[in-house]
Design goal:
alpha/beta, Rossmann fold, 5-stranded parallel beta sheet, 5 helices, 5 strands, about 40% helix, globular
Amino acid sequence: MPYKNKTYVAFDADSDIRYYNLMKAWKQSDYSQFDFYDAHDLNVIRTWSSEQTIKTRLRERLKNTKLFVLLIGSRTRFHYKFVRWEVEVALNLNLPIICINLNGKRSLDRELCPPILRDELAMHISFNTKIVELALSDWVSDHYKYRKEGRSGDFYYTTETYTNLGL
């Protein structure tokens, strides 16, 4: 089995790609310790590929992933064809999930979070390099600990955690 060190980021490509691109810029910045191994770099998907081909390639990426990140924007919950499907696969693979609210909310946003994730074991955070960096470094081990304990539901960092990060 290949070593799973990738982070898979799902998002509404029509509306929220700029946030994904910003995360990639954070990764390359000399000013941040932010890092992730981008699962989208694993194989090429052509724009003319069939839905089945795209899903097959995405599933390959998800199988080589240690962490699933969902960028939650104003329209994410309405994307069933790929985003919901990606979430379902991540859940079936028992991947740790980080939900990043693009609107600044620091916990579960019941209005915007896809319903499939509302009662699942997931970390909910705001979109900021420092808190994303913390979640990427801590959530994988926390997720497996909580899963072993039989816990579920939404998790989030306290106001104190954000304050300690200068946020």
